[in-house]
């Protein structure tokens, strides 16, 4: 069995003709740039591009196949040398069963299936060109369609305060809006980790995935997983999510929840940290509160421990969070050692300090070993590395 670095949630900002797809995505986040950056800078082996339903994105992928730069594997997935792309789509539901909008991820094995899905979607949403559009059917109807087409279905960033399953989408249980038997995995999001999520007993039967939700090239692989598969294909990924035939997620690598934008409860006006039961900010008097992920999970808590066999969650600080490690120095590191994955996982301290100042090398090692002090984020503001 082989080990692969996998990030299944990457957005496209613009098409090859410059049209917007993910409005909040960077203009540099094109399909071609994603492939180049994921392969040669990040060192990933598999990515999920979750705006692949957009017709121009489909045309671009088809043109790459026609030119011979890409081929489709018989077990699903688009092969770009040593990188596999899994076509996906992020959609929003807000049906009569939801208490707030919910984002969901749908993945398919081939471009032909994705094109069929895109054609079907166009009859259920307002703008098929754009990402994360609201689809005017129920969550269960969407699940049924995805499964009929041989797809993978995963609720996205399930604890974030906005547009997520547990943020505001349901009162207590995912079964309020989704069929529990048609879920293939649970995406944790940047403000939670395995230990936090496993406080919800109903999640114990699902594999957890940790993805970047990248809106820029630099954010790719800020969270990812190492997956055991025979080869990087759609079929093997599905087996890994189900834990079949030795395929599995070996480990999740993600931000310490303190670094996430929504970890703690804060005042929506001034981002002053608040307690769970506070109704008014004691600093500015504002009454609108953004409930943090940690407090929301405590509201929903039904379990104390993780189920047996749950893979480890490794808290990892992305290189862009390291104070003093700017773009030029990071580029120097990548050029010297090959990829960010190599820097994060493999390069010894002695080699690092030969390329960057010893203080930066020391921070990279401390981050790798989970020995770095952090200040918590909240209300849409990332946490940060505190004074060491």
From TrEMBL:
Organism encoding this protein: Neobacillus citreus
Matching entries from PANTHER family are given as: PHOSPHOHYDROLASE, PHP FAMILY, PHOSPHOTRANSFERASE
- Source domain of life is Bacteria
The keyword Hydrolase is annotated on this UniProt entry: yes
Source taxonomy lineage?
Bacteria, Bacillati, Bacillota, Bacilli, Bacillales
Leader sequence range is none
Q: Name one GO molecular function term.
A: endonuclease activity
What's the protein here called? Endonuclease Q family protein
Q: Please name the Pfam families in this protein's record.
A: PHP_C (PF13263)
For this protein, the record's InterPro entries field holds: Pol/histidinol_Pase-like, RuvA_2-like
Coiled-coil boundaries: none
**Keywords tagged on the record:** Endonuclease, Hydrolase, Nuclease
Q: Indicate yes or no for the key word Ribosomal protein.
A: no
């Amino acid at each position: 069995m082989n080990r692969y670095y996998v990030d299944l949630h990457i957005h496209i900002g613009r098409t090859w003709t410059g049209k917007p797809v993910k409005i909040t995505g960077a203009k540099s986040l094109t399909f071609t740039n994603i492939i180049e950056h994921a392969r040669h800078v990040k060192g990933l082996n598999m990515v999920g591009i979750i705006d692949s339903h957009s017709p121009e994105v489909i045309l671009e992928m088809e043109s790459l196949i026609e030119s011979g730069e890409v081929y489709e594997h018989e077990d699903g997935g688009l092969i770009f040398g040593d990188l596999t792309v899994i076509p996906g789509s992020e959609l929003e539901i807000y049906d009569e069963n939801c208490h707030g909008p919910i984002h969901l991820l749908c993945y398919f094995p081939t471009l032909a299936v994705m094109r069929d899905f895109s054609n079907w979607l166009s009859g259920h949403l307002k703008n098929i060109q754009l990402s994360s559009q609201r689809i005017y059917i129920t969550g269960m109807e969407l699940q049924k369609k995805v499964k009929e087409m041989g797809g993978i279905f995963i609720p996205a960033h399930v604890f974030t305060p906005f547009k997520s399953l547990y943020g505001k989408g349901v009162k207590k249980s995912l079964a309020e809006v989704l069929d529990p038997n048609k879920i293939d995995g649970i995406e944790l999001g940047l403000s939670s980790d395995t230990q936090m999520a496993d406080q919800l007993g109903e999640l114990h039967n699902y594999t957890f995935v940790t993805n970047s939700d990248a809106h820029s090239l630099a954010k790719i692989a800020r969270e990812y997983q190492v997956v055991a598969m025979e080869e990087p294909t759609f079929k093997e990924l599905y087996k890994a999510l189900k834990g079949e035939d030795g395929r599995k997620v070996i480990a999740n690598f993600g931000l310490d929840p303190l670094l996430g934008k929504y970890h703690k409860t804060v005042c929506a006006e001034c981002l002053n940290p608040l307690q769970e039961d506070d109704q008014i900010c004691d600093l500015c008097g504002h009454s609108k509160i953004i409930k943090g992920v940690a407090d929301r999970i405590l509201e929903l808590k039904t379990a104390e421990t993780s189920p047996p066999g749950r893979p480890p969650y490794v808290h990892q600080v992305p290189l862009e969070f390291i104070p003093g490690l700017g773009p030029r120095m990071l580029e120097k590191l990548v050029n010297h050692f090959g990829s960010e994955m190599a820097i994060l996982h493999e390069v010894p301290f002695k080699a690092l300090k030969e390329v960057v100042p010893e203080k930066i090398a020391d921070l990279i090692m401390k981050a790798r070993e989970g020995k770095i002090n952090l200040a918590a984020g909240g209300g849409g503001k990332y946490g940060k590395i505190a004074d060491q």
